[in-house]
């Protein structure tokens, strides 16, 4: 391989480019017809009643926390094996993230660990569909119902995945998506929240644009004229542009194709690695419902003479730009300063020591997949005990 292979990458074609160019030539660059159309397409695709587009996935999580009414003194339960944004959003609204340990098969948040962490202050659960594999949503929704909690599913990895035949985005109280370029479809930067609740939907719309409304029916004071608007709460500017939304509409048409390719490539990896000593392939659900955002292997370091770091560096030297998803969120100095201690989630911490993310994206070429398989195998073969 004379070029290096990243762990993830977007796929932009001429149709995507044309869609963006068309917006640039139109009257609206932001909050025009394309944002509403993108939202409608997301509603159709996920089966949710409402979709609200945001400037990025983190803004979507922040807005969902606001809409859920999470605030000062509340606790929000999430997983440590995620990107920091899944926990930061609780901090944004003055709440405290509480980390629950993971399941040893799917690496997703363990519902029984959630139950252990519930206190009278718990307000919400933010499960993450890690790698694209949906969480145990039935059990999580059941726990939420029992303790009167709101479920905000972080589906940054799992757009297009299904859970028991239902599309992700239609199941939790609110579901958040990201359209960052490494995610399955992209708008450059972008995000969305889907929900079936009109109440949440209206709050999300308010929050996205400064807490301002022009809707006469919603005004607190008297309507003074056509120019009139009211700021009723402290919102933000978290809007997506029409330029980005046009790209999103175009990308969404290709989502199923992208996922099918990802599933096919993940299967090739798993078939190749399943009988190899020293490597543990990722969970595969019986119904094959994962969106396969990332392909995460565990190194069985007891069977190898090298550790994860050496393995990672050997891949790197051979042109495979692997990654590690994720460093437990509370290992970060910011969280350590807030008082979170190592040892909090032993399974997550043990997993972190052994994982590597191999390249997986729809535009991978067969020769690249073969190269990743051969290279990984040869590193394993030369470094077994
Ligand atoms: C990417 C990601 C986010 C944040 O999305 P942005 O669009 O980058 O803000 C949140 N949670 C998870 C699990 C992610 O992978």
From TrEMBL:
UniProt-annotated catalytic positions: 183
Highest taxon of source: Bacteria
A family per Pfam: DegT_DnrJ_EryC1
InterPro entries reported in the protein's UniProt record: DegT/StrS_aminotransferase, PseC, PyrdxlP-dep_Trfase, PyrdxlP-dep_Trfase_major, PyrdxlP-dep_Trfase_small
GO BP: any one term: polysaccharide biosynthetic process
Modified residues (N6-(pyridoxal phosphate)lysine): 183
Keywords, ordered alphabetically: Aminotransferase, Pyridoxal phosphate, Transferase
Keyword Transferase among record annotations: yes
Molecular-function GO terms, alphabetical: pyridoxal phosphate binding; transaminase activity
Documented EC number(s): 2.6.1.92
Family assignment from sequence similarity: Belongs to the DegT/DnrJ/EryC1 family.
NCBIfam families: PseC (TIGR03588)
Name of the protein in its database record: UDP-4-amino-4, 6-dideoxy-N-acetyl-beta-L-altrosamine transaminase
């Amino acid at each position: 391989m004379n070029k290096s292979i990243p762990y993830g990458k977007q796929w932009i074609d001429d149709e995507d480019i044309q869609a963006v160019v068309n917006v640039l030539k139109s009257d609206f660059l932001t909050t025009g017809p394309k944002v509403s159309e993108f939202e409608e397409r997301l509603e159709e695709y996920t089966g949710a009643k409402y979709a609200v587009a945001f400037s990025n996935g983190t803004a979507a999580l922040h807005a969902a926390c606001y809409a859920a009414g999470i605030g000062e003194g509340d606790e929000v339960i999430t997983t440590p094996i995620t990107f920091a944004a899944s926990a930061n959003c609780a901090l944004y609204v003055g709440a405290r993230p509480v980390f629950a340990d993971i399941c040893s098969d799917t690496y997703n948040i363990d519902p029984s660990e959630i139950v252990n962490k519930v206190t009278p202050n718990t307000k919400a659960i933010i499960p993450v569909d890690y790698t694209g594999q949906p969480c145990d949503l039935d059990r999580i929704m059941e726990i939420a119902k029992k303790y009167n909690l709101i479920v905000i599913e972080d589906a940054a990895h799992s757009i297009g995945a299904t859970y028991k035949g239902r599309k992700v985005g239609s199941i939790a109280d609110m579901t958040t998506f990201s359209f960052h370029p490494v995610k399955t479809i992209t708008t450059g930067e972008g995000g969305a929240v889907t929900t079936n609740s009109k109440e949440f939907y209206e709050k999300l719309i308010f929050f996205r644009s400064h807490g301002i409304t022009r809707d006469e029916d919603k005004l607190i004071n008297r309507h003074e004229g056509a120019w009139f608007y009211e700021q009723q709460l402290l919102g933000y500017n978290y809007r997506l542009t029409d330029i980005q939304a046009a790209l999103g509409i175009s990308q969404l048409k290709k989502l199923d194709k992208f996922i099918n390719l990802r599933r096919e490539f993940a299967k090739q990896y798993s078939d190749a690695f399943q009988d190899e000593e020293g490597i543990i392939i990722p969970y595969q659900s019986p119904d094959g419902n994962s969106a396969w955002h990332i392909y995460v292997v565990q190194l069985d370091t007891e069977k190898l003479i090298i550790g994860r770091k050496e393995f990672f560096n050997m891949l790197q030297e051979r042109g495979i730009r692997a990654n590690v998803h994720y460093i437990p969120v509370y290992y970060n100095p910011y969280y350590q300063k807030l008082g979170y201690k190592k040892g909090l989630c032993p399974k997550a911490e043990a997993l972190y020591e052994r994982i590597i993310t191999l390249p997986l994206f729809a535009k991978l070429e067969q020769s690249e997949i073969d190269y990743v398989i051969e290279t990984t195998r040869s590193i394993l073969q030369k470094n077994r005990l």
